[in-house]
Amino acid sequence: MDDGFAEYVAQRHLRLCRMAYLLARDWGAAEDLVQTALAKAWLAWRRIEGNPDPYVYRIIVNTHSSWWRRRWRGEVPAETVPETADPRDAAAEVDDQAALWSAIGALSPRQRAVIVLHYFEGRTLTQVAEIVGCSLGAVKSQLSRALTRLRVDPDIQTMSLEKVPR
Amino acid sequence: MTYTESDLRRLLTERVREQDGGEPSAHLDAIVRRGRRTRRTRRAMAAGGALALAVAAAGLMNVLPAAQPGTGETAAAQQRADSARVERGPELPETYAVVLGAERFDLALIHSRHFETMGVAQKVTFSPSTFSTGYKVVCDDPRAWVVTVERLKGGEPGGTAGRCDSSVGGHHDRLSAPSDWLKRPQSLQVWVFPADAPVREVAEAVTGCPVTPVSKDCDEKAQSQALMRPEVRERLSAQLGERPGRWAVGVYDRPAEASPGPD
């Protein structure tokens, strides 16, 4: 049984691992998640019509949620993003990134999945809803809460801050 | 500090590119094997469920006077249902007990990987939360040979080797862990070889096996030491190939704030 499965794995494995890493935050766990998802996809391969991505993504998201519920996690992410110094300072910029990464780790598995699928995978919210298996309204609600916790303001457009010597 | 959506996109993109040790590679064979195993499990469970229904039906018939001759069939059906039960792989303990002089504490399981084959190297990557990180390997066959290799404080390789039931594993403390232990994901390499693997023959061929001063010949202790040499493992692995055999490795650690850094 193949019908393009090997080709799909060859083409998509790295991307799937990266997406899984953003959920699990551990490369070993990410590879395990992807292997689990692809093994299940292999079983259902002939029944999958069209693009297998949504099916595989859904397995990864659901499997990660179930692992997250039952595993002890040594990581204790901050509940909120701490205030930082001058945003133009290079060290402060690194701190900001670390704080944002830490805050992503504090999100629930579902909120994290919505963030990763929308902002990393570039999926529309309708596609995200299909993958995580809930309504579009629920996804919008999850996204709004997640962005609030991350202190990401979707109304602010990107502007490049000029780095000036202090 | 307020972020923009672009900040978020950039962070996610950058984070996935920071992996040490190269990009993860796809193991199609392992994926397909796992798929086949899942299918076997589902079929076995479905068969077990059907048999359980048959047992229940037969049991119900047995309480009726006209159905008493069916008792023997009920027992037979029960036996088949039991035989269809799927065995789980080796279980890892939830905690790892550490004794450091007068100090005793337990490490909690933070990461585990289960494998279905032996004979080839497996790399396990994990993110330690403290310098007190331990690991343990368990096998379906307690006489299987296990070798673990990790990086020590000076960057040199170290590890353990022996039969699986001889508590193969170990733990770091703040004196033995490399200085970058908490700065990036760490990895452990594990080889598991079948109990009847020709370790002695390969060790004698490669090294002559004169390893331990107390061993007069290439006994099991000397064979264990020979397995720490890469050329012995490589030849053994090439000779055996990948074979079925279940085992698991667990990584244990303390909560992040519990351990001070190295001196």
From TrEMBL, chain A:
Molecular function (Gene Ontology), one example: DNA binding
Pfam families given in the database record: Sigma70_r2 (PF04542), Sigma70_r4_2 (PF08281)
Record keywords, A-Z: DNA-binding, Sigma factor, Transcription, Transcription regulation
InterPro entries: RNA_pol_sigma-70-like, RNA_pol_sigma-70_dom, RNA_pol_sigma-E_actinobac, RNA_pol_sigma70_r2, RNA_pol_sigma70_r4_t2, RNA_pol_sigma_r2, RNA_pol_sigma_r3/r4-like, WH-like_DNA-bd_sf
Domain RNA polymerase sigma-70 region positions: 12-73
Entries under Gene3D superfamilies matching the protein: 1.10.1740.10, Winged helix-like DNA-binding domain superfamily/Winged helix DNA-binding domain
Domain RNA polymerase sigma factor 70 region 4 type: residue ranges: 99-150
Entry keyword annotation includes Ion transport: no
Entry keyword annotation includes DNA repair: no
Biological process terms in GO annotation: DNA-templated transcription initiation
Family statement drawn from the similarity comment of this UniProt entry: Belongs to the sigma-70 factor family. ECF subfamily.
NCBIfam families membership: SigE-fam_strep (TIGR02983), sigma70-ECF (TIGR02937)
Name of protein: RNA polymerase sigma-70 factor (Sigma-E family)
Natural source organism: Thermocatellispora tengchongensis
Taxonomy of the source species: Bacteria, Bacillati, Actinomycetota, Actinomycetes, Streptosporangiales
Automatic annotation (TrEMBL), chain B:
TM region(s), chain numbering: 44-64
The entry's keywords: Membrane, Transmembrane, Transmembrane helix
Keyword Transmembrane helix annotated: yes
Entry protein name: Uncharacterized protein
Organism of provenance: Thermocatellispora tengchongensis
